[in-house]
Amino acid sequence: MTDMEEKFPRALWIRLIIYIAVGHLFAGFIWLLFSVGAK
């Protein structure tokens, strides 16, 4: 576990989590537009 932590810095994990969170919000927003538009 320590080897993985050394290979990947904390900043990289934070950036990855932010990208995933933003991606999910963007996908959810698009899905919401389509679901409202379908009605």
Overall description:
The structure is a single chain. The protein has 39 residues and is mostly helical. Helices cover 90% and strands 0% of the residues. It has helices at 2-7, 10-38. The relative contact order is 0.09.
Mean pLDDT: 88
- Please tally the β strands and state the result: 0
Largest sheet: none
Based on secondary structure, the structural category is mainly alpha
C-alpha-based Rg, rounded: 16 Å
Q: Total helix count?
A: 2
- Beta-strand percentage range: under 5%
**Low-confidence runs of at least 5 consecutive residues:** none
Query: What best-fitting shape do the alpha-carbon axes yield?
Result: rod-shaped
Helix content: over 70%
What's the order of the H and E elements? HH
Oligomer: single chain
Termini gap: 49 Å
Spell out the blueprint of helices and strands.
Elements (H helix, E strand, L loop, with lengths): L1 H6 L2 H29 L1
InterPro entries: DUF6126
Keywords: Membrane, Transmembrane, Transmembrane helix
Protein name: Small hydrophobic protein
Quick take:
This protein is mostly helical and 39 residues long.
Keywords summarizing the entry:
rod-shaped; mainly alpha; about 40 residues; about 90% helix; 2 helices; about 0% strand
